Amino acid sequence: MYGDLWAWAAEEPAKAAAAAVMIGIPAAGALAQQRQKDRARSGRPDASAPRRAGDALLVRFLAGRDLRPGDPSSSAGWWCAGEEVVRDRTAADLAAGAPAAPLKQQDTVLRTVVAGAGRWSCWPGVARASVRLIVPVSVVAAWSGWWSVTTAGTGLLSAAGVAAAVTGPAVLGWWRPRPAGADLVHGPGMWAALRPALGVEESQRREQWLVLSDDVSVPGAKVVLRLPAGWPGGEAGKRAITAAVTDRLPGEWSENWHRADSAPYAEWIRKEPPRKVPTLPESVAWKSSRDPYQVYVGQAVRGYDLEDVVIRTKSATPHFGVGGLTGSGKSTVLYLGVVHARENGVLVDILDTKQNSMTEAEGKSGVRVHKTPAECVAALGEYLMSMMAAETAIGKTGDPTLRKMLVPRLMVADELPTMMKMALIWWKYQIKGRGIPPFAEWFSIGLLQGRSADHRFGVGAQQWANAYFGGTMERAQIGWKAQLGFCDSPSWTVAFGASTPMVSPDTTVPGRGVFADGQINPETKGLWAREFQPSYIVPEVSARLDCAPPAPAWFDAGERAPWITAETLKTAESLAIPDFLVGGRLGPAHPVKGGAVTRRPQQAVGVVPPRSGAVTGVPVTAGVTAGVTGAGGAAPQLAVELFSLSEACAAGLLPWDYATAKVYKGRSAKKGIEFPDGIPDGRVTYYTRDEIEGWLERWQAGAQSRP
Q: Which UniProt keywords apply (predicted)?
């Protein structure tokens, strides 16, 4: 028989080749299927016998489907491209370098056509079926002697196959390869691990037990696993099942077990990926607010977003303040309040005993800059009278005419410690005052009562010590409080409280700081202190103030507020205010005007601006006029250093610690050793170097004279 076949094949080679092709294709398919069954029986992984309808090799051949057995497999349809499936990934592939450089424009079309032709497994069914049928159709037609039909059929099938293969990714984009779904990529390996754990037979199809979303990289994607009724489960079993599922998938997943249902199952849902916390910008542009009671300051991080930092001056604690070391940017932040106030028609008084900290605001309508202690005290007294008169005007029995005149006002005390200490020196050594000066209490009253009268304060200070605010109650009226740059632990405690967790801002960024606006931290349930970046407005200050609404003539002329009545002046006498006003017995001779820069000699009569310091440990140096009882006159300037008792101990003027010095101070009166009166501000008493050293000599002499 075999001899006859060989003889026939030798006589009819074309027919013999066609017969071999037609018989060989089904035989190869049968052998491939038998190999899959053998792999399954031997327990080798990724073995799934094709049992579904249409899985026969001849059917897959005619339909243009992938002929390679097992998963993964392209699911190309007749008109749709299949998935791009990576079957074999070697270590060399994983260690490959960066992706190739982008194609040049002139090479794009040609290389894309070649690449599209190379994606044989992703071609649509019509393309692969056309190419596959070229050979058998040609053989059959040639066998029958239909050469014209052979040529036409071959050309038609070739054109159809090539057109369907290259038009999509190359030119027209009719179809594109789909990325492989999760069921195709992760399903086989996942099922290989889950099937033994669940005790499911090999003959069971994966699709009946395990379902995955097409895209498991998006939040909300699901993996659902049906559980056999007899599965024992338990915590160990659940952990094993969860590990088999989630270890093969990207991201974080939440699990839900439904064992009590009539059809028990488990599901895993993809969690939302953690959002990236934004980074504060190093520069923030300032923007105007149409609300006169909301001042835009900068930006801070809240959760996963940047939010605007706003000073709300209509709150129960309406005043605002900025703390920090010299050069940290306090004046820059105070400028924001000044510009916002003027753009909304608010009148501004600036207490600037440094005489150069807010120069951009000088010479502008609606802004008065007070530079000497006498001017600052006079301005504070007039401001307090204005507040008292405004309260009376807006009351039930107030004069409607005066009520219409009222204008909101803002007083900015830049370097408050400097101003307070210079005022104390002026009180003690220039006007020879005794006891506690009244202007420290004026400031306290203004903090407590300024809100309802639209009279607010902006404060700059190196430290938030009670000595400069009148006490804890008054300091608490600073509703929006910031600390710029580096802040040590004591300064943090007096600014935000010991119970507030310390926040360290990025001190490498100019102006960076921490603020608190009275909000409660939802995590700690305490005061919420957060890092923020203030706006830098200094280059714009002059131009913005020039565009602000003009101030009333009385303000720029340096006059008192017109709603201050004779009754107000009479009430002010009980607070010792009139003597300190302009033209008063102790006040400056000339008013400070707005709209023009106040020019003064380099060394003013009475006081030279000292360096501001912290509450403890830093002496304050000032020039004072000796032998002068009034505000005028010239006299030789004497250098005076003021120290509190604790500062004197820290500076080495006293050879004891603070506790010992307090004991010896109390014993001085009993022993008849005079202790200096000093300069009290109501809470802390300051002494000159000569007073401290003189008392030390008397104390030591008294100790030596005792037997």
A: Plasmid
Task: Find the length of the chain.
Answer: 707
∠ CA(445), CA(371), CA(320), 5° rounding? 40
Apex CA 541: angle with CA 538 and CA 542, to 5°? 125
Nearest alpha carbon to residue 554 among 304, 347, 694: 347
Which tokens in the block code for residue 131? 């190419």
Q: Does residue 99 contact residue 93 with C-beta atoms inside 8 Å? A: no
User: Do 323 and 496 contact (CB within 8 A), yes or no?
Assistant: no
- The CA-based angle 267-273-276, given to 5 degrees, is 170
Q: What is the mean pLDDT of each run of 10 residues along the chain (707 residues)?
A: 66 70 58 48 43 60 70 68 66 55 53 66 76 73 67 73 59 64 84 89 87 89 91 88 91 90 90 86 88 92 90 86 88 93 94 87 93 94 94 90 93 89 89 86 87 89 81 86 90 88 90 92 87 93 92 93 93 92 91 67 36 36 36 40 84 88 86 84 77 88 64
Q: Which two tokens stand for residue 158?
A: 């070739």
Q: 3-class secondary structure for 590-641?
A: CCCCCCCCCCCCCCCCCCCCCCCCCCCCCCEEEEEECCCCCCCCCCCEEEEE
Those residues with Cβ within 8 angstroms of residue 605's Cβ, 6 or more apart along the chain or in another chain: 625, 631, 632, 633, 634
Query: What is the distance between the alpha carbons of residues 68 and 82, in angstroms, rounded to a whole number?
Result: 14
Q: Is the dihedral of CA 463, 467, 468, 474 positive or negative?
A: positive
Q: Which two tokens mark 652?
A: 């080495």
Sequence-separated (6 or more) residues with CB below 8 Å from residue 531: 280, 300, 301, 503, 505, 506, 512, 513, 514
3-state DSSP helix/strand/coil percent for the chain, to nearest 5?
40, 15, 45
Amino acid symbol at 479:
G
Phi-psi category of residue 327: left, alpha or beta, with phi > 0 → left and psi -120 to 50 → alpha: left
Q: Find the helix or strand (DSSP H, E) in which 649 lies.
A: helix 645-650
- Secondary structure of residue 309 in the 3-state scheme: strand
Q: What is the pTM of this model?
A: 0.60
Q: What is the DSSP letter of 284?
A: -
- Three-state secondary structure call for residue 369: strand
CB atoms closer than 10 angstroms to residue 669: 10
Question: 432: closest CA among 249, 682, 628?
Answer: 628
On the question of a cis peptide bond just before residue 549, with omega within 30 degrees of 0, the verdict is no
Q: Are 269 and 254 in contact (CB under 8 A)?
A: yes
Q: How far is CA 326 from CA 331, 413, 462, in A?
A: 10, 15, 7
Does residue 662 sit in helix, strand or coil? Answer: helix
pLDDT at 265 (0 to 100)? 93
Using an 8 Å Cβ cutoff, are 587 and 378 in contact?
Answer: yes
Nearest C-alpha neighbor of 476 from the set 502, 451, 452, 501:
451
- Tell me what pLDDT residue 597 has: 46
